[in-house]
TrEMBL record:
<dbReference type="InterPro" id="IPR011991">
    <property type="entry name" value="ArsR-like_HTH"/>
</dbReference>
<dbReference type="InterPro" id="IPR036388">
    <property type="entry name" value="WH-like_DNA-bd_sf"/>
</dbReference>
<dbReference type="GO" id="GO:0045892">
    <property type="term" value="P:negative regulation of DNA-templated transcription"/>
</dbReference>
<dbReference type="InterPro" id="IPR029016">
    <property type="entry name" value="GAF-like_dom_sf"/>
</dbReference>
<dbReference type="Pfam" id="PF09339">
    <property type="entry name" value="HTH_IclR"/>
</dbReference>
<dbReference type="InterPro" id="IPR014757">
    <property type="entry name" value="Tscrpt_reg_IclR_C"/>
</dbReference>
<dbReference type="GO" id="GO:0003700">
    <property type="term" value="F:DNA-binding transcription factor activity"/>
</dbReference>
<feature type="domain" description="HTH iclR-type">
    <location>
        <begin position="34"/>
        <end position="95"/>
    </location>
</feature>
<dbReference type="InterPro" id="IPR036390">
    <property type="entry name" value="WH_DNA-bd_sf"/>
</dbReference>
<dbReference type="Pfam" id="PF01614">
    <property type="entry name" value="IclR_C"/>
</dbReference>
<dbReference type="InterPro" id="IPR050707">
    <property type="entry name" value="HTH_MetabolicPath_Reg"/>
</dbReference>
<keyword id="KW-0805">Transcription regulation</keyword>
<protein>
    <submittedName>
        <fullName>DNA-binding transcriptional regulator KdgR</fullName>
    </submittedName>
</protein>
<dbReference type="InterPro" id="IPR005471">
    <property type="entry name" value="Tscrpt_reg_IclR_N"/>
</dbReference>
<keyword id="KW-0804">Transcription</keyword>
<feature type="domain" description="IclR-ED">
    <location>
        <begin position="96"/>
        <end position="279"/>
    </location>
</feature>
<keyword id="KW-0238">DNA-binding</keyword>
Length: 293
């Protein structure tokens, strides 16, 4: 990450009143939901600029009624994004926004570190390589390397696919606690994409121990007919699985030796990316404790 230059210390300039672009009168024209979202971010920005601020000052600065400001602050407070000082009754931001920012930075680091290994796999296999993460009730692709072949998986960065019928999804579920995986599955529609799709929570749960034991997940024409996929986990420095790394290919191009080769490539790549993100395998940590340098 590039270093950020520290600004020179200067006297604080008088704070200007924000232009009334979000006034109450605009709500009817812009649509209530859009207006509300814009106001929330305006409030968060104003609090961030001030450090601490009261309702009256927020109301004046943003040209919003005190009632509107108070209502939105109470919502932000309930969600954990702001807190109110008891003595001054002024509001300030919590660390929750920092946590969101840290997750964004983590994703940037993940893609950057994974790209090296993904290109290596793509060069070795000439097949499509994907990096996917958990997104509420599905997986979402955050990076990809296209296959060299004309016959290949059609995908794009930002595309969402089901958890239960994809190799990456199975990997993400397998490294969750069983109760958590079951809870996730209970809130999603286990739609059958092909005749081979596992369409019940029990069926999906039954294969997760094997996925974890063998160290990779597999989709054999469960998401798309004629297409197979293999995936391995990527760990962060805390030992959490934060993504899955996969290679997808037509069934007609997969033999027993091909699968073994791809699994070996994926496991090596997954381990390399995880190590770059700060992950150390338990055996490695134990060895370092037993035989310190």
């Amino acid at each position: 990450m590039a270093a950020i230059d520290k600004p020179k210390t200067t006297a604080a300039a008088p704070r200007k009143r924000a232009a009334p672009l979000l006034s109450d009168a605009d709500a009817a024209d812009k649509g209530e939901s859009l207006s509300s979202v814009a106001r929330v971010f305006a409030i968060l920005g104003a609090i961030g600029d001030s450090g601490q601020i009261g309702i009256s000052e927020l109301s004046q600065r943003l040209s919003l009624s005190k009632t509107t400001v108070h209502r939105m602050l109470q919502t932000l407070k309930a969600l954990g994004y702001v807190t109110q000082e008891v003595e001054t009754e002024r509001y300030r931001l919590t660390i929750r926004l920092f946590e969101l920012g840290a997750k964004a930075l983590e994703s940037v680091d993940l893609v950057r570190e994974a790209d090296i290994e993904m290109r290596r796999i793509g060069h070795a296999t000439r097949e499509a390589v994907h990096l996917g993460t958990f997104d509420e009730d599905a997986i979402i692709y955050i990076h990809k390397i296209d296959a060299d072949y004309g016959l290949r998986m059609q995908s794009r960065i930002g595309r969402r696919n089901p958890l239960h019928s994809t190799a990456i999804g199975k990997v993400l579920l397998a490294w969750m606690e069983p109760a958590e995986a079951r809870e996730v599955l209970s809130h999603i529609e286990l739609r059958k994409s092909t005749a081979k799709t596992l369409s019940s929570a029990e069926a999906v749960m039954s294969i997760l121990p094997q996925v974890r034991a063998q160290g990779y997940g597999e989709d054999i024409e469960e998401q798309e007919e004629g297409l197979r996929c293999l995936a391995v986990p990527v760990f962060d420095r805390f030992g959490r699985v934060i993504a899955g790394l996969s290679v997808s290919f037509p069934t007609m191009r997969c033999g027993a030796d091909t699968k073994l080769h791809y699994v070996a490539l994926l496991k090596a790549a997954g381990a390399a990316v995880s190590a770059r993100l700060g992950y150390r395998e338990p055996a490695q940590e134990a060895a370092e404790v037993t035989h310190p340098g």
